[in-house]
Amino acid sequence: MKNVLVIFGGKSSEYEVSLRSSECIIKNIPRDKYNVYTLGISRNGDWLFYDGEVDLIPNDEWISSGKTSPAVLSSAYGSRELLIFDNAGEAIKERIHIDAAFPVLHGKNGEDGTIQGLFEMCGIPYVGCGVLSSAACMDKAFTNLVADAAGIPQAKWLSFNSYDYSVNADGIISDIINKLGLPVFIKPANAGSSVGISKAKTEADIRKAIDLAFEHDFKIVAEEAINARELECSVLGSMQGVKTSVVGEIVPKKEFYDYEAKYISDDSELLMPAPIPEKVSDELRALAERVFRALDGKGLARVDFFLSKDNGRLYFNEINTIPGFTSISMYPKLFEHTGLPINELIDKLIEIAFEI
Ligand SMILES: Nc1ncnc2c1ncn2[C@@H]1O[C@H](COP(=O)(O)OP(=O)(O)OP(=O)(O)O)[C@@H](O)[C@H]1O
Ligand SMILES: [Mg+2]
Predict the structure, then answer these.
(1) pLDDT averaged per 10 residues in sequence order, the chain, 356 residues
(2) Which atom of ligand 1 is found nearest the CA of 224?
(3) Residues near 179 by Cβ (< 8 Å), separated by ≥ 6?
(4) What CA–CA distance (Å, rounded) separates 231 from 250?
(5) What CATH number did the domain enclosing 270 receive?
(6) Is 155 in the pocket of ligand 1 (CB under 6 A)?
(7) Which residues contact 145 (CB under 8 A, 6 or more apart)?
């Protein structure tokens, strides 16, 4: 039996999503192979070992359940210990050996290479992409650079930081309009779940969108808007072998797939598999694998594409290295449709964590 530490919550705008994803993962980890321990990170960044009911996690009641104790991972390389303190935070009351960590943290500090760096320091194997890969996949400007270098088709784009904008706002705005056309998407380079993203149709919109995006990051990516269907593919594996899922389609009920559409209104339609010709599906799956490999992917990722309604071409949009993992999320659902049930998928992900 191996001891797996599932880490949930986190200081990120996707805290609630993480609670729901971790509920699903905790409930589906094969218990004949793994002992599961859970650690929640509060919105303030406190680390709390949690030994209460799983059902108190998704509604955020875990935190006031009285079943938490302050905890840290020992940073001594290779000790692989979770140190649990008494509630005064003074004495260590328990040490748990950890064989692997499973970070179920979306967005900042979870999906961006930072916690992965901590696991590397501690010598703890972990599920998912490594430090550089996570960071590059989280940052839309770096992702786009790597995709360009790898010859992956994507929307025309440009990026700039808050210093560039402070000295040359007018030049940047005219570059956006001249090189990308209208409408454009304005996005913080690092965010996720559509937070801070706008579709801008006029110059005035662009200025507003930029101000909003700078609330979330110091760097912005502007992209040509593709009039498109939205297709997604789940990827599992490592450099030693990659498996892609059938393709799924999201049919947003709103103008674009924003945070509300994703997590609140819940009326976007998910089609699995997507009603597209086999040839397009094959091409998309091959592209998804190329994106994953180009970015040193390991473990899991959901790779998202646009299928242009104007020219029928596929454009890579983005890669998520810790995609939504609730029981109704695309990532596990697409593999279910590919013949890989969720408990086997999770088992594979943990096995890959031990690969060099
Ligand atoms: N270039 C584009 N052309 C057309 N639509 C776009 C473009 N970029 C983004 N969108 C729309 O905005 C949504 C959010 O954008 P994107 O996927 O880049 O953001 P995200 O915040 O990283 O989301 P995720 O939660 O998937 O990580 C897309 O699903 C799509 O509906
Ligand atoms: Mg997206």
Answers:
(1) 97 92 98 98 97 98 97 95 93 97 94 97 98 98 98 98 98 98 97 84 98 96 98 97 98 72 68 98 98 98 98 98 95 98 98 95
(2) 1
(3) 156, 158
(4) 6
(5) 3.30.470.20
(6) yes
(7) none
Which residue's CA is the closest to the ligand 1 atom numbered 28? 257
Phi-psi region of 71 (alpha: psi -120 to 50; beta: other; left: phi over 0): beta
Q: Is the CB of 194 under 6 A from ligand 1?
A: yes
Residue 131 lies in a domain: no
Same domain membership, residue 174 and residue 113: no
**Could you give the number of structural domains in the chain?**
3
Domain that holds residue 217: 157-224
Q: Which of 142, 256, 310 to mutate to test the pocket of ligand 1 (most atoms within 8 A of CB)?
A: 256
Q: Which residue owns the Cα nearest ligand 1 atom 29?
A: 257
> Is 0.90 topped by the overall pTM?
yes
C-beta of residue 17 within 8 angstroms of C-beta of residue 263:
yes
Same domain, 122 and 9: yes
The two three-digit tokens of residue 150, written as one number? 């790898």
**Ligand 1 atom at minimum distance from 195 CA:** 21
| pLDDT, tens digit (0-9, with 9 covering 90-100), for 29-86 | 999 999 999 999 999 999 999 999 999 999 999 999 999 999 999 999 999 999 999 9
262 Cα: distance to centroid of ligand 2 (angstroms)? 10
Q: Are residues 34 and 162 in the same domain?
A: no
